[in-house]
Specification:
eight-stranded mixed beta sheet, seven-stranded mixed beta sheet, alpha+beta, binds flavin-adenine dinucleotide
């Protein structure tokens, strides 16, 4: 068995894990991040880089280079409620450097951060390395067990970070208690080609309690179609032609392009979860990002929260790690710092999901389905100044984090 050592071992190369590893290495704290996949090219992670994340990138001196990567800027969040367009959020007044959401495939963001991290000798990434369990001695986590292309390995570290997402192996191995809040929706994920005549689509389109989100990925639309939880079997049972006809209500014409969905193989079911750990840490271990609090796609804020967790973790732990090991009370400070924003956003997601989707029938909407504009959205239409509130909640969120850790030469 091969044994490696690092001061900090991060399980999971998603936004939380890669950003935290970058920040630790930038402060010359030896870190290794383990990612089970061979690359960052999985397409179902979301594409939103929020104004507060862009502020973090500016604080790191990385903003201009990041924005050189092709992206789309969303200055206003609009939705179609039935046939009525509604502007839900106006980001142009945000107190941030970039007054927009940058839509950029998450793999571009992760590849960018990982490539920038490599300039720090303290930064190591091990791809195709899957954490399978924890090493514990006398009730303290002292490392992880993992499998790699070269066989099983152990990584011994004075601190393990669980950033391995909503199905976290780390949190399960640690026996941390998860509180599941339930989610009444699932998401069908597929792509359709863009048509030359396509305007940039409204981000979301609601009809009869169904929601379609279309993300602009250059030459194709990445589509997320929200259905009631457990509704996929009913969708499939009605058959592909019926599914295409249902989608044609949401997708701008020509409807023929929906023929590109030739089989159910091109339609992936993503289950949605909202949960939270009661306690994010134990001696030698801290969970952050979705591993500590799985986020629903509602509002597209999970990436931002994961990055904010990473910044807060570095702000709290870097000064500690420069002089000594992190104790449990240090780790608990991270949870105390981040609990309010997480509870607030998850509370909003639960409220919104409950209001919009709770009583939605499993039957598909039709062209006759009426979709009245709910009162809060009518108010946003009448009083545009109110659109700044949802823009702030989504674009910045409560308790935004700023980089306070120094760049330390090796
Ligand atoms: C359908 C859907 C759409 C979404 N869309 C958006 C959106 O548009 N915008 C947004 O902000 N949020 C979105 N979210 C939420 C967002 O994806 C998450 O909140 C965010 O990715 C959390 O980041 P993370 O780093 O904590 O975890 P993840 O992004 O899940 O990253 C975890 C990483 O750990 C790796 N990993 C897992 N297990 C192991 C292991 N045992 N060993 C090693 N590596 C491991 C995984 O491969 C992954 O790379 C969406 C969520 C869903 C379900």
């Amino acid at each position: 068995m091969t044994t490696l050592r690092a001061r900090v071992c991060v399980a999971g190369g998603g936004p939380a894990g890669v950003m935290l590893s970058y920040l630790l290495a930038r402060s010359n704290i030896d870190v290794v991040v383990l990612e089970k996949h061979a690359d960052f090219f999985r397409d179902f992670r979301g594409d939103t880089v929020h104004p507060s994340t862009l502020d973090v990138m500016a604080e790191l001196g990385l903003l201009d280079e990041l924005l050189a990567i092709p992206h789309t800027e969303i200055h206003e969040v609009t939705a179609m409620i039935g046939a009525t367009p509604v502007t839900i959020g106006d980001l142009t007044h945000l107190p941030t450097r970039c007054k927009y959401i940058a839509l950029m495939p998450q793999w571009d963001l992760l590849n960018f951060l990982a490539s920038k991290g490599k300039r720090y000798p303290a930064f190591r990434v091990m791809m195709q390395t899957e954490v399978t369990g924890l090493l514990e001695e006398n009730g303290t986590v002292v490392g992880v067990q993992a499998t790699s292309p070269d066989g099983p390995i152990e990584i011994r570290a004075e601190l393990v970070i669980g950033a391995d997402g909503r199905r976290s192996t780390v949190r399960e191995s640690a026996g941390l208690k998860v509180r599941d809040f339930g989610a009444p929706i699932d998401v069908l994920w597929f792509r359709i080609d863009k048509d030359l005549g396509d305007a940039s689509a409204a981000l979301g389109h609601f009809i009869g309690g169904r929601l379609m989100v279309m993300l602009d990925r250059g030459d194709y639309w990445q589509c997320a179609y929200v259905i009631p939880k457990g509704g996929y079997d009913a969708v499939r049972a009605r058959g592909l032609p019926s599914f295409r006809a249902e989608l044609a209500l949401f997708v701008p014409p020509p409807a023929e392009r929906l023929e590109q969905i030739r089989s159910w193989d091109g339609v992936r079911l993503l289950t949605v979860t909202i949960d939270r750990l009661d306690c994010w840490s134990k001696p030698g271990l801290l969970c952050i990002g979705d591993a500590a609090h799985a986020m629903s796609p509602m509002g597209g804020v999970g990436i931002n929260l994961a990055i904010q967790d990473a910044v807060a973790t570095a702000n709290i732990l870097v000064p500690v790690l420069r002089t000594r090991r992190a104790r449990e009370d240090d780790l608990q400070r991270v949870q105390r710092r981040r609990t309010f924003p997480v509870r607030f956003i998850q509370g909003l997601q639960l409220f919104a999901q409950d209001r919009i989707f709770r009583n939605v029938a499993l039957t598909a909407p039709t062209a006759d389905t009426q979709t009245p504009v709910p009162l809060p959205l009518r108010l946003l239409k009448m009083f545009p100044i109110l659109r700044r509130i949802p823009a702030y909640v989504v674009g910045v969120g409560p308790r935004p984090e700023h980089v306070r850790t120094p760049e330390v030469p090796a």
